[in-house]
Amino acid sequence: MREFDHFVAIDWSGAKGERHKGIAIAIADGKGGPPVLVDPPARGFSRPEVMEILRSDLPANSLVGIDLGISLPFNDAGAFFPGWQASPKSAKRLWAMIDEICANEPHLGANTFVTHPVASRYFRHGKDHTGDQFLLPGAVSREGRFREAETAQRAQKCRPVSNFNLVGAAQVGKSSLTGMRMLHQLRGDLPVWPMDPVPEKRITSGGSMLVEIYTGLASKETADLGGRTKLLTYADLNAALSVLECPPVDSEGEIDDHSSDALLTAAWLRKVAPEQERWEPKCLTAEIAYTEGWTFGAL
What's the Cα-to-Cα distance from 201 to each of 1, 26, 60, 198, 269, rounded to whole Å? Predict the structure, then answer.
């Protein structure tokens, strides 16, 4: 696998509004050293600001991981939206569809899509509001549909949530949809694995590439959290970093989970990116890459 010079991890947010304390960006230098946070504006990053960083302000030859789903389930039913004639045939066409429907919504928001008269039927919106197409006919589980990458995550003892689920603290549906708008607008500026080939270092975007990450996978592989799911102190963060043979972050006390997720995952990306099996998971076919994409690191 070719080398990258920088490893960038982004904890994303699909929340309403312009600026978000839940967005955090961390960078790990390929030469070593602890990961560092990118200082946010006073009220937090906006999603368009992050998009412009990815378009024009990335360190050259960066592997960028962003914590969201880059597509929706397709393989289980042969369609993103079974029964809907307008259902796209590929992830990139899905991005375009979402961005077109939400074109008048500011801040890369995606509420217009989940309230669309047809699209809304496929999502779980609340405890007592589940679309009639949220579950496939004969579904055994009430959790909703999953991509093949999320099935692989489960085999690694992670607990992903369906991207069609918009309910609860663990849901990533809203952040995934807003992220897909961004990915569509970044087309031609930053390749996305596995839909696009890994660029040579000397060409497109200075050799940079974006991948989907799941920060829970980085935590699972490095941190002994007991019953907890997040790193909330620098002591816990540095203990996890030590598993990656990464120097500690020079700070003490409490840390918010968005910052700790970004810092840990930047260092984790640096550690695992040279592992060929991370780029060639056994269930990743050309068709799945074209439709569902994959979560980097899921085997």
Answer: 12, 21, 9, 9, 17
